[in-house]
Design goal:
Blueprint lengths: L1 H26 L6 E2 L2 E2 L13 H15 L8 E20 L10 E15 L2 E11 L4 E12 L5 E15 L11 E15 L4 E16 L13 H10 L3 E17 L1
Antiparallel strand pairs: 1-2, 3-4, 3-10, 4-5, 5-6, 6-7, 7-8, 8-9, 9-10
Length: 259
């Protein structure tokens, strides 16, 4: 009887613990680390999906690196050009500049040129020399120019404006030998370069020139007794000062070096 009562008490006690433990597990507050049998390990911390400023900067640099041509910064440049030019010495204004009956005041010829300068990001500043050889005369110019470039990978369109000194000489007419036309050359151009490498480019340039020219009277005209009326008229013309405004256009092939 004594052993039966003890067994009964033990059974009741175990049953009570069996009921209480599940109740503790069920009634534990949400988010509690307590579980039946011990502590629950903390949940993994979720990473923030929003990139940090450093990550954003690195992503932008990577994207720019992919889009960039890889040429890097350019500080100096030089180029050479060659192409045909059509020019009229007194297209816009003719005031006794040349005698069209003895000298062809307009015509086509080949132009050779070279330029050099410095570059700051998309802007360039430099100097350019051009020499043109025509049938009845020669033209050379030296001036400054400034340009804006639009980098599109290895392809680079650009626009330039320039102005400088221009001189026309080498006349084949006996009335103009030794004399020169001189004045201001104003130029606007548009072109495109293609970079074959980081330092070498090939391209094309289309430019237009407005020439403001003047001429001093010549005292070198000598006429013989058998001079024709044309020669006499030319001698009278070149014995006076003259001026004119010319207009020209040039299409040239350009080879460039960039540093």
């Amino acid at each position: 009887m004594k052993y039966g009562a003890g067994f009964l008490c033990a059974s009741v006690t175990l049953a009570s613990f069996g009921i209480a433990l599940p109740a503790l597990a069920v009634d534990a507050p949400a988010g509690s680390n307590l579980q039946a049998g011990g502590l629950k390990p903390p949940e993994a911390v979720q990473s923030d999906p929003t990139p940090t400023p450093t990550t954003q900067t690195e992503a932008q640099l990577d994207r720019a690196d992919k889009e960039d041509s890889g040429r890097g910064l350019e500080f100096a440049w030089l180029n050479a050009e060659v192409g045909p030019q059509y020019l009229g010495l007194q297209t816009l204004k003719a005031n006794k500049l040349v005698d069209g009956s003895l000298i062809d005041s307009k015509g086509a010829g080949m132009v050779y040129g070279a330029g050099l300068g410095v570059r700051l990001l998309a802007f360039t500043v430099g100097a350019r020399f051009r020499f043109g050889n025509f049938s009845d005369w020669q033209l050379w110019s030296l001036g400054a120019e400034a340009g804006m470039h639009i980098p599109l990978g290895r392809l680079e369109p650009y626009f330039t404006l320039g102005a400088g000194y221009a001189s026309v000489g080498g006349f084949k007419s006996e009335f103009m030998r030794g004399s020169n036309l001189a004045g201001l050359d104003v130029r606007a151009s548009a072109g495109v370069d293609y970079y074959l490498s980081n330092t070498f480019s090939v391209g094309a340039n289309l430019s237009g020139d407005v020439l403001f020219l003047s001429r001093s009277s010549s005292d070198q005209v000598r006429l013989d007794a058998n001079a024709s009326q044309e020669q006499q008229a030319a001698a009278a013309l070149y014995g006076q000062d003259g001026s004119g405004i010319g207009l020209g256009g040039t299409l040239s092939l350009v080879l460039g070096l960039h540093f």
